[in-house]
Design a protein that fits this description.
mainly alpha; 167 residues; 6 helices
């Protein structure tokens, strides 16, 4: 059975969103880091690019602590796997005018869903799940108010160009 009620929020999210209930805000286990930590070696090159991009954003918002690096790693790897799968499907689509890379023909002549579509869907779903845990989804951002009311928007840029593998 799933737990009832809303998911608990970190102290950082409570401070960013405000505290309308005026309940005491407990300190998190770790304070926010002041610089993006080094990415774990296990991340792929494209995941490390996402680590730097998203890490800068989270550090600027004081939303990244040392204990968050595991979930940030999972998010970055899932994001990179999704981007890589979509890039591979796009390359296949150039040669496949009928299904655009979404279907493949087996050795027996049966048409099945391209396994890359499943990989892409799962990685995308995982990335969104990890992003929501860290307050990075659109719904989470809609609830945020920056201290001081400023609007220092951080442009996302062209994510696909950033994550494209070098030939």
């Amino acid at each position: 059975m799933a737990p009832r009620g809303r998911k608990p929020k970190s102290a950082a999210l409570k401070l960013i969103e405000g505290n309308p209930g005026k309940r005491a805000i407990t300190k998190d286990i770790m304070e926010a880091v002041s610089a993006v930590p080094e990415p774990p070696d296990l991340l792929t090159d494209s995941a490390k690019v996402e680590w730097e991009r998203m890490g800068r954003i989270l550090v600027n918002l004081n939303m990244l602590s040392a204990v968050d690096t595991v979930i940030l790693s999972a998010y970055c790897q899932s994001f990179a796997r999704w981007a890589d799968a979509e890039e591979a499907i796009a390359k296949m689509a150039l040669k496949d005018e009928i299904t655009h890379g979404l279907m493949i023909i087996t050795k027996n002549g049966n048409a099945i869903q391209n396994p890359l579509v499943g990989i892409s869907n799962r990685a995308k779903s995982d990335a969104v799940k990890y992003a929501s845990e860290m307050g990075m989804t659109p719904a989470a951002r809609a609830r945020f108010t920056r201290p001081g009311g400023g609007g220092d928007d951080i442009p996302a840029g062209n994510l696909w160009a950033v994550h494209a593998r070098k030939a």
